[in-house]
């Protein structure tokens, strides 16, 4: 009888040690998995879940809405029926969302679609090709409106004019060369976004 209790006790100790070891391994595996999940991966999950977010930008402003698209170095926030903001990842200071969405986004997801491999330059060149009027908020806090004339590898040439006015030589008040690194967000009319 005493031997049965001894063996039961030893079995319980071994089982507890095994459970503790399994929990430690599972915890370490989760830490390793999370260390490989990028911000971009989490944005893709939030986009797929149609999550509402508030994106805080490095310039101090914020953009609220649903993540509509994610590229290699940018994401787009659908701000409602009026406009879409294209935000370079480098201009993002943080995201606010419900806790459940935050936890769900940690599952991560690697992008596969062509759109998810497009960089900011491609988006800006498309806006230039289609002559879409834009508002560019730059990291200095300035806000520029006009039409993208050209987009280089790392900058954009903007013909500055009122958004309500078509890009016509008489409407252009100046020209600005803006490096991609200085762009906090590009705001485009929702029906012109093409995202």
Automatic annotation (TrEMBL):
It comes from the Bacteria. It comes from Microbacterium schleiferi. The lineage of its organism: Bacteria, Bacillati, Actinomycetota, Actinomycetes, Micrococcales. This is Uncharacterized protein.
